[in-house]
Amino acid sequence: MRDIDIAEVAALSGVRASTLRFYEEKGLIASHGRRGLRRLFDSAVLDRLALIALGRASGFSLDEIARMFAPDGRPRIDRKMLSAKADELDRTIRRLNSMRDGLRHAAVCPAPSHMECPTFRRLLRVAAAGKISEPRKAKKAQRKRS
Amino acid sequence: MRDIDIAEVAALSGVRASTLRFYEEKGLIASHGRRGLRRLFDSAVLDRLALIALGRASGFSLDEIARMFAPDGRPRIDRKMLSAKADELDRTIRRLNSMRDGLRHAAVCPAPSHMECPTFRRLLRVAAAGKISEPRKAKKAQRKRS
DNA sequence: CTGCCAGTTCAAGTGAACTTGAGGTCAAGG
DNA sequence: CCTTGACCTCAAGTTCACTTGAACTGGCAG
Predict the structure, then answer these.
(1) Residue A31: strand pairing partners
(2) Where does A3-68 sit in CATH, by number?
(3) Most buried of the four, A10, A64, A80, A114, by CB within 10 Å?
(4) B9-33 pLDDT, tens per residue?
(5) Which residues touch B114 (CB under 8 Å, ≥6 apart)?
(6) In this predicted model, what pLDDT tens digit does every residue of A22-47 receive, in sequence order?
């Protein structure tokens, strides 16, 4: 339970200071006090950030995550919600699987135009049908220069 | 190759008229002419829209998609890019799989607090490590009232 | 001919999740 | 003591993919 300052939290968690301030404003994390102006965080904030990362990765919005460990402080996670999210994730995974297979096929398909390939056309039907969740860009460590 | 108007395209594709205009402005689709003010689309636009849906579903941005069948018109899709995207999708799927398993576990885990559950803590590490692409909300047919 | 109404344009708004900029403060080092 | 630089606040900006609103147009039914 040592106090660490925002720069250290940023370094340890990989989350930028501006994001940490933003998260605090949203009520996702809390600073424990100040030294001068500087926020002091409890080292437990690192677990909290991991939890937030988990939530984001599982498709929860920040608001949903905030609601998860809301009023008191410690994570009170709704098991029903988790289950539902797992199911949703499952459906997404299934669709992404067909997408991947289709892309993989299209990449090697000998048909002169993709539009003439039956596999590609089937893929198109899948895509046109289930509107799919949007995976957007993977943003890995988008760490630009200092 | 019949001409169809925007309302019909919307009805057949499930894409809203405003989105179709937006896509046209972005150069993703093209209208073939006008009857009065009204756009006329070639029915081939439906294939194009399926292609766009496919691209979006696979994680391409609209700009990337636009570049795919850019200057001339017909889809000249870079097989290398497809392959790369398939790989990326594959990695995303793998991560989502652990997420789902972890969520599933957390939903039934008997530990008094999730933080005390080793499986949950492992999940946390996965989430904290790979920053994962964001699946965001599934938006299926988000057809609100008129 | 008259209106209707679905279409049109263009600008601005939305929402999520942050980032950036301007201007200010303060603990610590020289 | 005074400068420095990391941190602070608050507002505004950014990106993406659209949606909405206001004001307008024109084909077609009556």
Answers:
(1) none
(2) 1.10.1660.10
(3) A114
(4) 999 999 999 999 999 999 999 999 9
(5) A75, A77, B106, B120
(6) 999 999 999 999 999 999 999 999 99
Residue B38 approaches strand C within 7 Å at CB: yes
Measured CA to CA, the distance from residue B54 to residue A101 in angstroms comes to 12
Residues of B in contact with A59 (CB under 8 A): 134-138
Whose structure tokens read 């029903």? A80
| Spatial CB neighbours of B39, under 8 Å, sequence gap ≥ 6 | B5, B6, B21, B24, B31, B33
Name the residue among A54, A108, A130 with its Cβ closest to that of B127.
Answer: A54
B-facing residues of A in 78-117 (CB < 8 A) are: 79-80, 82-83, 85-86, 88-93, 95-97, 99-100, 102-104, 106-108, 113-115
